[in-house]
């Protein structure tokens, strides 16, 4: 019988707890509360406070209820030394990401954004379609979710480019890697999709300098983290027309404050960090399977490398 410590800074805390207790019926799952320093075998968390994990070096692993490790890595020295942090691998998020990105991409490609504006003006006007071979889709991040997005986009015959830290060979994808590959990637990209982890290297990557390397009339779809984008720079580039439209799921501050200028800019689409939610059953099943694998002394996927930041 394992002792599992749970904490989720999430509006779905009760659903998580319920799903965990169903899946770990023969174990003890307890919600961490301040002052709880009792021993545990595993922690299952989302955005835990430093106090929960500090000094817990006897944990066998810390499982995250999401894909991004940026929030937990911010705890720095409060993370127990030598304890693996394990993120979710897809667990049902990949297909949601593919849906979100394809929806935004097709909306721009088929000019639905302009038809929506025309409809609001009571205007009936045919617009010439864009050339597909000029509508290159560049995906920043070719990991678990990035590759799922690429697979989906390819189904519509868009030319696809990808950028990652280490070089990749993916059928039908022109791949760029590292800082030296970024310039060429951006200059050849019409629709930029960001699905990078937030790390010291990727924070603020989508600033004026880099965004203006995109061709005139480019689009941005950000489903990664708000801190990848310099929001003032993006707004300026949208207002100048250099960027024709942006679809943003994530923001520097969430919820996006009511007074934020993005709300007033019709060329910026806003969704409330919903591109891919962690599915309760699928996520918990993946964690349970990984826990069992660890108990057998076998390797698992998704161990976060703190030195890389993801
Ligand atoms: P992943 O499998 O770890 O993939 C990360 C990709 O980014 C890899 O291809 C990696 O390159 C690349 N990368 C990392 N640092 C880089 C750098 N400095 N330069 C170039 N490429 C770099 O992560 P994932 O599962 O696909 O998830 C990605 C992110 O999506 C998460 O971290 C999270 O922030 C975000 N997310 C958002 C939502 C939402 O609802 N909006 C939901 C889930 C996840 P290598 O392949 O060379 O390692
Ligand atoms: C959500 O944003 C995640 O990282 O899973």
Structural class: alpha/beta
- What is the CATH level 1 assignment of the largest domain? Alpha Beta
Mean pLDDT: 98
Instruction: Give the distance, in angstroms, between the N- and C-terminal Cα atoms.
Output: 31 Å
The succession of helices and strands, N to C, reads: EHEEHEHEHHEHEEHEHEHEEH
Strand content: 15-25%
What does this protein look like?
- This protein has 310 residues and is α/β, with parallel strands linked by helices.
- It folds into 2 domains: 3-91 and 278-295, NAD(P)-binding Rossmann-like Domain (Rossmann fold, 3-Layer(aba) Sandwich), CATH 3.40.50.720; 93-270, Rossmann fold (3-Layer(aba) Sandwich), CATH 3.40.50.720.
- The chain has helices at 13-23, 50-53, 70-73, 93-109, 112-120, 144-154, 178-187, 208-211, 231-239, 280-295, and strands at residues 3-8, 28-31, 42-46, 61-64, 85-86, 137-140, 160-164, 173-177, 191-194, 218-222, 243-248, 268-270.
- Helix 4 packs across helix 6 (144-154).
- The mean pLDDT is 98.
Feature tags:
seven-stranded parallel beta sheet; five-stranded parallel beta sheet; Rossmann fold; binds NADP nicotinamide-adenine-dinucleotide phosphate; 10 helices; binds glyoxylic acid; 2 domains; 17% strand; 310 residues; 12 strands; alpha/beta; 31% helix
Short note summarizing the structure:
31% of the residues lie in helices and 17% in strands. The chain is built from 10 helices and 12 strands.
What is the strand and helix layout of this fold?
Blueprint: E1 3-8, H1 13-23, E2 28-31, E3 42-46, H2 50-53, E4 61-64, H3 70-73, E5 85-86, H4 93-109, H5 112-120, E6 137-140, H6 144-154, E7 160-164, E8 173-177, H7 178-187, E9 191-194, H8 208-211, E10 218-222, H9 231-239, E11 243-248, E12 268-270, H10 280-295
Parallel strand pairs: 1-2, 1-3, 3-4, 4-5, 6-7, 6-9, 7-8, 9-10, 10-11, 11-12
Helix pairs in contact: 1-10, 4-6
Bound molecules: NADP nicotinamide-adenine-dinucleotide phosphate and glyoxylic acid.
The site of NADP nicotinamide-adenine-dinucleotide phosphate has 29 residues, from helix 6 and strand 7.
């Amino acid at each position: 019988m394992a002792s599992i410590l749970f904490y989720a800074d999430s509006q779905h805390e009760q659903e998580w707890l319920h799903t965990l207790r169903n899946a770990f019926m023969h174990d003890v799952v307890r919600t961490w509360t301040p002052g709880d320093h009792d021993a545990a075998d595993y922690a299952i968390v989302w955005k835990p406070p430093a106090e929960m994990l500090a000094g817990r070096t006897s944990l066998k692993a810390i499982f995250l209820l999401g894909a991004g490790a940026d929030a937990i890595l911010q705890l720095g020295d409060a993370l127990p030394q030598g304890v693996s942090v394990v993120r979710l691998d897809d667990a049902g998020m990949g297909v949601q990401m593919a849906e979100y990105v394809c929806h935004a991409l097709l909306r721009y490609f088929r000019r639905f954004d302009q038809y929506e504006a025309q409809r609001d003006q009571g205007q009936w006007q045919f617009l010439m379609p864009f050339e597909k071979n000029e509508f290159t889709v560049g995906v920043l991040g070719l990991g678990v979710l990035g590759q799922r997005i690429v697979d989906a986009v390819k189904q519509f015959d868009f030319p696809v480019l990808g950028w990652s830290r280490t070089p990749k060979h993916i059928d039908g994808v022109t791949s760029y890697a590292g800082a030296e590959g970024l310039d060429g990637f951006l200059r050849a990209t019409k629709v930029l999709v960001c699905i990078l982890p937030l790390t010291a290297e990727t924070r603020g990557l989508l600033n004026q300098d880099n965004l203006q390397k995109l061709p005139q009339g480019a689009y941005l779809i950000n489903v990664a983290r708000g801190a990848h984008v310099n929001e003032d720079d993006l707004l300026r580039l949208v207002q100048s027309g250099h960027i024709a439209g942006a679809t943003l799921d994530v923001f520097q501050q969430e919820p996006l404050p009511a007074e934020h200028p993005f709300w007033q800019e019709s060329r910026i689409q806003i969704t409330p960090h919903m591109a891919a939610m962690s599915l309760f059953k699928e996520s918990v099943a993946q964690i349970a399977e990984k826990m069992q694998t660890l108990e057998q002394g076998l390797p698992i996927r998704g161990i976060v490398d703190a030195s890389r930041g993801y």
